[in-house]
Amino acid sequence: MQRIAITGATGYIGGRLIPRLLECGYSIRCLVRTPAKLAGRSWAGLPEVEIVTTDLGDADSIATGLAGCSAAYYLVHSMTSAGADYAKRDNELAANFAQAAQLAGVGRIIYLGGLGETGAGLSEHLASRREVEEALGSGGVPVTVLRAAMIIGSGSASFEILRYLVERLPVMVTPKWVSTRCQPIAVRNVIGYLVGALDKAETAGHVYDIGGPEALRYREIMRIMAEELGLRARWVIPVPVLTPRLSSYWIHLVTPLSHDIAKPLAEGLKNPVVCREDAITRVIPQQLLSVREAIRAALVKVADHQVETSWQMAGPIPGDPDWAGGTVFRDAREIVIAAPAAAVFRAVCHIGGGHGWYAADWLWQIRGWMDKLAGGPGLRRGRRDPESVAYGEALDFWRVVGIERDLRLTLRAEMKLPGEALLEFRIESTGPSQCTLRQTALFHPRGLLGLLYWYAVVPLHHVVFRGMLRGIRSEAVRLAAAGAG
Q1: Which of 148-157, 281-290, 378-387, 412-421 has the largest mean confidence?
Q2: What is the SS3 assignment for the chain?
Q3: According to the model, what pLDDT value does residue 340 have?
Q4: Residue 116's CB: how many other CB atoms inside 10 A?
Q5: Which of these, 375, 352, 377, 350, lies nearest to 364 by C-alpha position?
Q6: Topology of domain 3-312, per CATH?
Q7: May I ask the CATH architecture of the domain 329-481?
Q8: What is the C-alpha separation between 211 and 200, in angstroms, rounded?
Q9: Percent of the chain with pLDDT strictly greater than 90
């Protein structure tokens, strides 16, 4: 059984690729920074899967992780974690990986890059993908490069931008890039090519453009999205004065994507991203979905709550703040619930997304809009699945940083704050059908503004947090009565 190394296993593509490789009979070694982020994946506990803590900034650490692997997928992108320096960071990590792969005796590297004409006109985002290709090849290990444009699939960043813009804006004043041509590809076809490249030894050392069967202008893709959503035709008005930079701020306000992610994506929209050759279709033949078919398949997954992975799942989770030093404000409450721990835990895990926050949802909505205007994520990130949560997942503008089934859920605030905040729920069984739920909000302020913020929101806690506890109690009792705990 060949052992295959995967970087980016916690990300959008990596999380979908691994189950397909397992189905093909490969053994997988996931090289990850935070192993806990894979704890909720159905395949993480399989004997064919190893999860190895790896620092991609350290060539020796990578070489140890790659030892004994016949091939490695490089699916890492620093855009969600390194801010404005992502291009430099990506180049450094790729060079480290190339050196480590050569030391470990890896036979080949497979990399998913970006489409776009070569030359000086590329956006920083697409130019960075080209630099990564070169860096991965610097160690002498053969590299297979697959270059893709917009990837359409439930949970992908491109799909989320498209869906939210079309859903929320019946009239769009846009930059002239809406007339740029693009050749989208369905995520299932991307995975098909990634798996197929591993099976086909002749792909080693080659670069392939991958895309769906049609190249369309962005405004045409928006039209198809509106039709598949059952909406009236959107008015798209291109104007020359709107730059991609200004567009990124608009994308940030209307969609779940942060400005840091929206900016490089928006700037990349000025480049035509169309396949210049189709050799991959003969080497790895498969049924390619049209843009309409890809959008329809993704919308079905969203409607059925079967989003396998999401763009939000990638990126680092910083360590817990040092709550021992300085001023730490605490708001602690508890409530007795006549339901077993499993039902209470499930009710707690329902918070966020379409479920809301059990009380004063209008206040949460106002706070979400304030956060978006300040450059934060707001509430539009929602949640990947309406029932289950896992370590590292987003719940609106919170992130799951601690989870113990039927015992604890800890959330870190990712909204714009003058300090650091945690919200924790702990469940203590006091009988076969009774629990005490303890809810604790912690806030570590930064400077005078942090102090003023805490005292400004404290009066609202009585409404928000007390109402939340009562709502959780009602939901837990309902779940217990229905036998769903």
Answers
A1: 281-290
A2: CCEEEEECCCCHHHHHHHHHHHHCCCEEEEEECCHHHHCCCCCCCCCCEEEEECCCCCHHHHHHHHCCCCEEEECCCHHHCCHHHHHHHHHHHHHHHHHHHHHHCCCEEEEEEECCCCCCCCCHHHHHHHHHHHHHHCCCCCEEEEEECCEECCCCHHHHHHHHHHHHCCEEEECHHHHCEECCEEHHHHHHHHHHHHHCHHHCCCEEEECCCCCEEHHHHHHHHHHHCCCCCCEEEECCCCCHHHHHHHHHHHCCCCHHHHHHHHHHCCCCECCCCCCHHHHCCCCCCCHHHHHHHHHHHHHCCCCCCCHHHCCCCCCCCCCCCCCCEEEEEEEEECCCHHHHHHHHCCCCHHHCCCCCHHHHHHHHHHHHHCCCCCCCCCCCCCCCCCCCCEECCEEEEEEECCCEEEEEECCCCCEEEEEEEEEEEEECCEEEEEEEEEEEECHHHHHHHHHHHHHHHHHHHHHHHHHHHHHHHHHHHCCCC
A3: 94
A4: 23
A5: 352
A6: Rossmann fold (3.40.50)
A7: 2-Layer Sandwich (3.30)
A8: 19
A9: 46
> Worst-scoring range by mean pLDDT, 6-10, 114-118, 204-208, 388-392?
114-118
Least-confidence region, from 17-26, 218-227, 310-319, 348-357: 310-319
**Of 84, 399, 412, 81, which Cα lies nearest the Cα of 248?**
84
pTM of the model: 0.77
**Would you state the pLDDT for residue 243?**
66
Measured CA distances, 36 to 45, 63, 293, 391 (Å): 12, 22, 35, 6
Locate the domains of the chain by residue range.
3-312, 329-481
Q: What is the pLDDT of residue 321?
A: 47
